[in-house]
Structures are given as structure tokens and as C-alpha cells.
Design brief:
This protein is an alpha+beta fold. The protein has 16 helices and 26 strands.
């Protein structure tokens, strides 16, 4: 919850009237939606986290860490200003760790900004997320005398130092600048990003902050834009200790120079004799120096990235070994799968191959084997263990244990004999055997599993990759949601979060998630709506590629508006009136689930009620998302590559969209 602007303004006045000291509080943001109690497990983990940040951050100026297990796991990071010493950094973090329990008492999420550091902790994984929503706080000072001239110079400086910061991760994603407005009037600027961001994310965060300032308050002489991912600040007085990394070219007159002008080198030409030869020498030497520096910089970046990947991998492996799940010996799984024979291979996905096995006691198992060298697979494996170790429900696949031996990483699950839903509903022979009662049973079972994930479990989970191939069916056709490698935790009572890396499968992704990276439980509701339509029609959403209908939602909506919804029903179901009426009712529910905006979609609790209470009134749907010729996603176009990896990307979007393969993992 934001503290009121009047309180912030009063705090600012006090800050200006008093001498500047170390570790001065600028602002804070408390998440009051979820609390912990004193002496609880979360409280212990939080204290451990803050101690870790105090100890390890001053060495490099940035550190992120986690403590404890879900649901009491605490995620946190600390960032010190790029121009302060390790001692000042340590002092600021000490102050923050002392203040935070009092500033945000017993809140499970908090972000505090000081003049020398930023500290944040949450009950969910926010690392590497580009987060600017509801995190901006602006401080306002004196009006400038010439707003137009001031704006030109300000934008040129901020854009220039933002580029310098984003392209220089080894220098703490930090840069400063100086520009003159008129006469002796000067403006000092500073930008910095948290180092869990990518170069593109850092620049986008700073650009977003600048855009906000230009839309609200660029006519003030000093402004701070504080977000959880980056800080942008400028004032008429110098507020940082280092020399400015960028200085505006002195040759420009008042108001000259385009706002997007790139950083320029200061003119080092000497007066008097030789003033013509110096620029020539510089013209030849500078490109050579810059080329060499760039080559060295790229080499260092590659080496740092490789070391970082190795450290993350080793950390993940150690954490897996410490999990409570049962530990299997590699020899046991090797014997159970007949040395991972191709005969026992059930499928393969982004994680690696999946094998059927049989233990000595006769229990049948499914074994996921991580492909060697797959860093992405290890990350998803970690995610799956983290969630399935905490979740137990009859409509979720059950994790039996893990194996970490001989550089092998494997997950062991209960074996589900009927494989995945897509192998039944998209195959003519198999689909013929599925009657309406069985299909409705599958729909209702998936709904109950989602209800547990979204509402009834100790931790709130968004699956993010709900699709037919990730629904397994047991011998009684009870559905079990599987593959939690891409699942996302919504901490406390959070209803949504943001991500800069969109993962999932095209055709099942909600528009607000695909384009903006907005994650909420309504993302799964959208995917579930697509699934319902696939189960009823017997056709996959992707089967409409190249047709006039464009996709299953478009095809369904055409029939619904024409009053021919009954023609959508799989012909293998026959023409019994009672079952057709129920199927049309489910089509109505599905269309409500795939509405354009999250607010128009019902939550999974309401969906579950509509599916089980036949007398319950159901509202009519409006046009769903992704209807051909509709602008449901803010005029952003999709580029679709129908390759085996099923990757898609969003044009004109800051999000990197990564789609999973079509096979169960």
C-alpha cells in the first residue's frame, strides 16, 4: 500500500531542511495483504535473509538470496548505489534491516528505498522480473524557469546515461550525468537497475520511468522515480559522490539537440599550436580503442555469464538434494526402466525424456530424466519439485521422489496408465470411446484441480501451461494436472504479478499474459476455457491454422452467434438431447472463461459451481479474445512459427515469449 503523497512531501521537506546523512529513508512500500506472526517460521527465515544480504551485498553492491521452504520461503535482494563504498553500503543495509520490521510490521512483502541502498523481500519469486507496476513514487521540488529547454536537455541526459548504465552491467548497472539548462543552471542525473535484470530489461525500466516523469512532472527541478527494479533521479544540486560519467556537450546552445541524441565525447582539442593534429589523431585512435574495449567487454561478459550459469546450476543441485522428497538410487531407476530403454519411453519435452518403470515391489512409475547440459530443464525441475512437494490433491499428479546421482537428475512420479488427454481427444479411434459422462467428468476434475491450486492449497499457484498434453488420465479417466515446471507462486493474497519472460503454449495463453506478462489465476481460467472447447469439439485449437475460422475460439463464436452451437459438439457423442444441452451449457461456460479481459472472466470457484450446479443461471458471453479481425490485444501482432518447438514472439512488445513443446514433460 502506497503511503500518502502528503506524507511523502512532508518527508521530502524534512530531508531538504536537514543535513544529508547516510542511510536516509526516501520511501517505502508495504504489502499489507499478507502478514506473518512473531517467532513464526517466516519471521525466522526473514531474519536469516536480512543477515545474508547485510553480509554479502557490500562486496559487489548487489545480492539476491532465498531462505526457507514454501510456503514460508522468503525471497530478497539488496542494491547499493553504484558510487558508494562498501562501508557505506553496509551501514545503509544495517539501517534498512533494523527499520523494515518497524516500517512494515509483520508484512510478508516490503520494499524500502534509502539514499544509498534499496532492500526488498517478498513471499514469492520476483527475481529477474521487470516490475514497475504500482511501484513508482515521485518527489517534487521547485518549478523550472524554462520547461521546454529543460525538457530537451533532461531527456538527452537521461537517455544517454540510461544507455551507459544498461550496457555496463559490470559497472553495477549505474551511471550519472550532468547537463546545463541556461547560464549557470545545472541538472545532475543518476540511474541504476537491480542486477538480476537483463540489459534490455534495465533500459526498458529506465525508459518507463522517464516516460512517467515526462507525462506528469518534468517541469520540476528535482524528481525521483523509485521502482522495485530501477531508480531514476535528477536534481539541481549534486547528490552523488562520483564525477559524472556523462557530461552534455558544451557546444550546444540553449534548447538545441534532439532528445534522443546519443552520448558524445567531450572535445579534448587544445588551443594554439597543434590543435588540428590532435582531432585527427583522436579520430584514428578512438575507434581502435573503442573496438578493442568492446571486444574485451564482450569476452568478459561471456565468461561472467558462463560462471553465473554454473553457480546457479550448482546451487539448484544442492537445493534439490536437500528436499524432503524420497530419494531414489540411480541403479534402482535404471533397473526399473530397463536401462532407460526406448521401448519404455513415454514422450519427450523441454525437460527431457520420460520413461515408464516398474519397481521391485510391483509399483509402476514414470521417470523424467533431465537432458544433460539443459540449464532451462534444471530450472523447471527445481520449480516442479518446489511445488509438488507441497501440493497433494487427487487431481494433481503425485511426485514420489527424486534422484541425484552420477551427474544425473531425475524426478519420479506415479504412473498414469491412460497417458495424456491429447492422445485421446485428438485421435479419432480413441475419441470415439469417450462418451459425454466421461468428458464431463474430465472437465469437472480439471476444474477441481485448479480450484485447489488457486484457492484451497496452502500456497496459491498459477500453472501457466495448462493444456491437453499436460492433463494425465488414470485407469478411471480421472484427470491429473501435471508439469509444474512453469508454475508461478502468487505470494500471500496477491491477485497478480508481472513477468518479463512469458512462457507457455500458443493457443492457450491469455492476451494480457501473452502481451504484457501479467500473471493471475485468470490466466489458467483462460487456458481451461480453451480446454473445455477442445474436449467438447474433439478438435485442437491449433488444427484451425490456415482456415477461415483462424482458431477454435473464432470458430466457436461464429456458431454461437449464429445459434448453431449444437453443431460444435463432437459427432461421436451422438444426438441425445440431455447430453447436447449439457454440452451447450459447457460451451457457454468456456466462452465466459476466454473473455478478452481478466475482469470479464469468472474465477475458478464460480466456474466449478457452474459446472456442478445444473440449475445455476449462467450469464451470456460476449466476444472472446483472439477473434479474427478483433483488436483484443491492443493492436499488437503475433508472429507464429509452427516449428516443432512451437515458439511464438510478440511484435512491439518488451516481453520475450517462449513457448513449450507439444509433448508432455
Amino acid at each position: 500500500m502506497m503511503i500518502s503523497q502528503s506524507i511523502l512531501f512532508s518527508s521530502l521537506l524534512l530531508m531538504l531542511l536537514q543535513p544529508k546523512t547516510k542511510s536516509q529513508l526516501l520511501s517505502l512500500l508495504c504489502d499489507t495483504s499478507s502478514n506473518y506472526s512473531i517467532n513464526s517460521t517466516f519471521s525466522t527465515n526473514l531474519n536469516l535473509l536480512l543477515s545474508s544480504l547485510i553480509m554479502k551485498t557490500p562486496r559487489t553492491g548487489f545480492f539476491n538470496d532465498t531462505q526457507g521452504l514454501v510456503p514460508n520461503r522468503v525471497y530478497g535482494l539488496a542494491l547499493c548505489r553504484g558510487d558508494i563504498s562498501s562501508e557505506d553500503c553496509s551501514d545503509c543495509l544495517q539501517t534498512a534491516s533494523t527499520d523494515m520490521p518497524n516500517l512494515c510490521p509483520y508484512n510478508k512483502g516490503s520494499t524500502v528505498w534509502y539514499d544509498s541502498c534499496l532492500v526488498r523481500y517478498e513471499n514469492y519469486d520476483f527475481f529477474s522480473d521487470f516490475n514497475v507496476s504500482q511501484r513508482k513514487i515521485h518527489y517534487f521540488l521547485t518549478n523550472v524557469s524554462n520547461p521546454v529547454q529543460f525538457k530537451d536537455r533532461l531527456v538527452m541526459m537521461i537517455e544517454s546515461i540510461s544507455k551507459l548504465a544498461a550496457l555496463n552491467a559490470s559497472n553495477r548497472y549505474f551511471s550519472t550525468g550532468l547537463t546545463n539548462v541556461s547560464g549557470d543552471e545545472e541538472i545532475y542525473g543518476m540511474v541504476q537497475c537491480t542486477r538480476d535484470l537483463s540489459t534490455e530489461q534495465c533500459f526498458n525500466c529506465l525508459n518507463d520511468s522517464l516516460s512517467n516523469i515526462l507525462s506528469c512532472c518534468y517541469g520540476f527541478e528535482g524528481v525521483m522515480s523509485l521502482t522495485a527494479s530501477c531508480v531514476l533521479r535528477y536534481e539541481s544540486d549534486k547528490f552523488f559522490s562520483s564525477n559524472p560519467a556523462w557530461v552534455a556537450p558544451p557546444s550546444l546552445g540553449p534548447g538545441l539537440g534532439p532528445p534522443s541524441q546519443a552520448p558524445q565525447l567531450i572535445n579534448f582539442t587544445k588551443k594554439g599550436k597543434g590543435k588540428k593534429t590532435v582531432p585527427i589523431a583522436l579520430g584514428i585512435g578512438i575507434p581502435l580503442v573503442l573496438s578493442s574495449a568492446l571486444a574485451i567487454f564482450l569476452l568478459i561478459c561471456l565468461q561472467r555469464r558462463k560462471r553465473s550459469r554454473n553457480r546457479i546450476k550448482e546451487k539448484n543441485i544442492q537445493e534439490l538434494k536437500g528436499r524432503k522428497s524420497s530419494l531414489f538410487e540411480f541403479s534402482t531407476l535404471q533397473e526399473a526402466t530397463e536401462h532407460f530403454s526406448d521401448i519404455n519411453k513415454l514422450g519427450e519435452g523441454g525437460f527431457g525424456p520420460v520413461y515408464k518403470g516398474k519397481l521391485r515391489d510391483g509399483q509402476e512409475i514414470a521417470v523424467k530424466r533431465l537432458s544433460k547440459g539443459s540449464n532451462q530443464g534444471l530450472s523447471e525441475l527445481m520449480n516442479e519439485v518446489q511445488f509438488l512437494a507441497e501440493l497433494q490433491h487427487k487431481n494433481l499428479v503425485r511426485l514420489l521422489g527424486v534422484c541425484m546421482e552420477k551427474k544425473e537428475m531425475l524426478l519420479v512420479y506415479e504412473y498414469i496408465c491412460n497417458k495424456s488427454l491429447d492422445t485421446l481427444i485428438f485421435d479419432d479411434e480413441s475419441r470415439r470411446k469417450l462418451n459425454w459422462e466421461e468428458r464431463l467428468k474430465i472437465i469437472q476434475g480439471i476444474s477441481r484441480g485448479l480450484l485447489y491450486l488457486h484457492q484451497d492449497s496452502a500456497i496459491r499457484i498459477v500453472h501457466r501451461d495448462l493444456k491437453a498434453s499436460n492433463i494425465l488420465l488414470d485407469e478411471n479417466l480421472n484427470p491429473k494436472i501435471s508439469d509444474f515446471g512453469l508454475a508461478r507462486l502468487l505470494g500471500g493474497d496477491h491477485t497478480q504479478s508481472k513477468t518479463s519472460k512469458v512462457v507457455g503454449t500458443y493457443g492457450y495463453m491469455a492476451p494480457e499474459y501473452a502481451v504484457h506478462g501479467t500473471i493471475s489465476t485468470k490466466v489458467d481460467v483462460f487456458s481451461f476455457g480453451v480446454l473445455i472447447l477442445e474436449i467438447i469439439t474433439g478438435r485442437s485449437n491449433s488444427s484451425f491454422s490456415g482456415t477461415s475460422a483462424a482458431n477454435l475460439l473464432n470458430y466457436t463464436w461464429e456458431h454461437w452467434t449464429n445459434g448453431t452451437a449444437i453443431e460444435l459438439i463432437d459427432p461421436y457423442l451422438g444426438d441425445e438431447t440431455w447430453s447436447n444441452d449439457e454440452a451447450v451449457r459447457c460451451i457457454n461456460i468456456a466462452l465466459l472463461c476466454v473473455q478478452k479481459t481478466p475482469n470479464e472472466r469468472p474465477n475458478i470457484f464460480s466456474v466449478n459451481l457452474m459446472l456442478t450446479r445444473k440449475r445455476m443461471q449462467i450469464p451470456p458471453p460476449s466476444s472472446p479474445a483472439f477473434v479474427f479481425g478483433d483488436s483484443s490485444i491492443d493492436d499488437r501482432d503475433f508472429e507464429i512459427s509452427d516449428s516443432s518447438t512451437r515458439r511464438s514472439s510478440v511484435k512491439y512488445s518488451n516481453n520475450e515469449v517462449t513457448c513449450t513443446g507439444p509433448y508432455p514433460r
